[in-house]
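Weekly modeling sync, notes
Attendees: S.R. (lead), two postdocs, one rotation student

Agenda item 3: backlog of single-chain predictions. S.R. asked that every request posted to the team notebook include the full sequence so nobody has to chase files. The rotation student volunteered to paste the first one in as an example of the format we agreed on. Action items at the bottom.

Example entry:
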Amino acid sequence: MSEAVETARLMDAVYRHQRHVYDLTRKYYLLGRDHLIKELQPPRDGVALELGCGTGRNLIAAARRYPDVRFYGLDISRHMLETAEKNIAKAGLSSRITLIEGDAANSAATEGLGVPAFDRVFYSYTLSMIPIWREALAAGAARLAEDGRIHVVDFGQQGRLPGWFRKLLFAWLKSFHVTPRADLEDELKNLAVQTGATLSFKPLYRGYADYAELRKG
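Predicted structure, as returned to the notebook:
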């Protein structure tokens, strides 16, 4: 069995029931998502891709903020995409948001959309859930326009928060198959060198989350 198939089965198992309350519960601890959306600032008539779009919460917020931009969302979980499709339809944004079922670590998953390259590629609390997260970053970079940007927000290492908080949080996240990536900054630095991009990386909320932008051109 391929790793992509195993990941799809795992995500479907984890979110088969959670998807119904996901947005209600996650808003309290997936901090920095709205900061990422604010910083996206895609060009007028641009195209943006979220890898690991989940229930579509970020796509809806971004589409409302940037009405002249076309959005695409990819997720490996069929159950999450079913919920995302319903949420997007309810928001009246089905004509501007396209969903794709596929592996975020496979750049070919978005090649059949008729989009040569994306102006923005973003990951919101996704890389901590993808076993082959480095490949997912590389896949996003491979589909990025020459002057495009990658945006990332995810769990940090809780550097300025109490040790007991970090221990409890990491143990709780592990139960959901979530692993904060301690070497996220190093991997983004390597990717920046490989792609000729520049990197901005900063902790948010005393290290609770990390936010990064990789800019080409």
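Discussion: group reviewed the output briefly. The radius of gyration is 16 Å.
Action items: rotation student to repeat for the remaining queue; S.R. to check formatting next week.
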